[in-house]
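chain below, 299 aa
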Amino acid sequence: MALTLEHVTKTFGSFTAVHDLSITIPEKEMFGFLGANGAGKTTTFRMILGLLNANSGSITWNGRVIDYSASPEIGYLPEERGLYPKLKVKDQLVYLARLRGMGRLDAQQELKKWLERFHIGDYYDKKVEELSKGNQQKIQFITAVLHRPKLLILDEPFSGLDPVNVEILKTAVTELKDSGATIVFSSHRMEHVEELCEHLCIMHHGSPVVSGSLREIKKAFGKKNITIQADFDLEFLSRYPGIVKYKKTAQGAELQIDREEVSQQILAAVNGKGFVRKFALEEPSLNDIFIEKVGASYE
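prediction:
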């Protein structure tokens, strides 16, 4: 059940929100969308869901266009919250699950399991407005997954959560993928996409600037990072051939090199100058790749 977008373009008047986007999201995988605000991620999600119509191009899942008949198989967590604050958790979540084809008792039992898992079992009979923002986010997530969707779209799922709850949610998302769901999610946190996704797409001003396997994207980038912790001044390395970035740190320096072979030359250069506590050659981070491809510092 691969999700396929072919030459998808969406405009609003003279503004192009998404331009000629072509990607295939593999079945039973987690796929990450990266991009600054306004990059086109949410517009893409809304087109996948059929909430917006593309001006051109096609979007298919399992070879067919997504329409209302597919809604029982799809879950969606929007970036902006959509729960009714005055309604009780049990009433609105069971109602929404029934709209997706679940029976009442099945929905109630599934809801209780999710609430217990997220350590908020006593919120079953509470109004949404009585919950903290973080717990409202958990409830919103449960809304998206309660009916056991095969395609799950998560728009900034970890926003508003503290680090402990981020880990709880990440574990839940990973288990849903392992149980067979195809998951697409956006995030402005590079490390979340790097940790969870095998494939990704970086968008900028509505266009894909990088797309494909995370492993292949890093390999094609070419550059590597070196972290050195030493008891002597490393400033001389800032002028060393093959080093494209040099950053002094409290313990030593962080370098970016244009090719892997340079690391051996740098190791030889620091050898014998004093005590080296750490010398680590690492893959480029997604943040490195994003900054170079998009051309702006990004947090």
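Residues 163-178 form the longest helix (16 residues). The chain has nine helices and 14 strands.
thats it, cya
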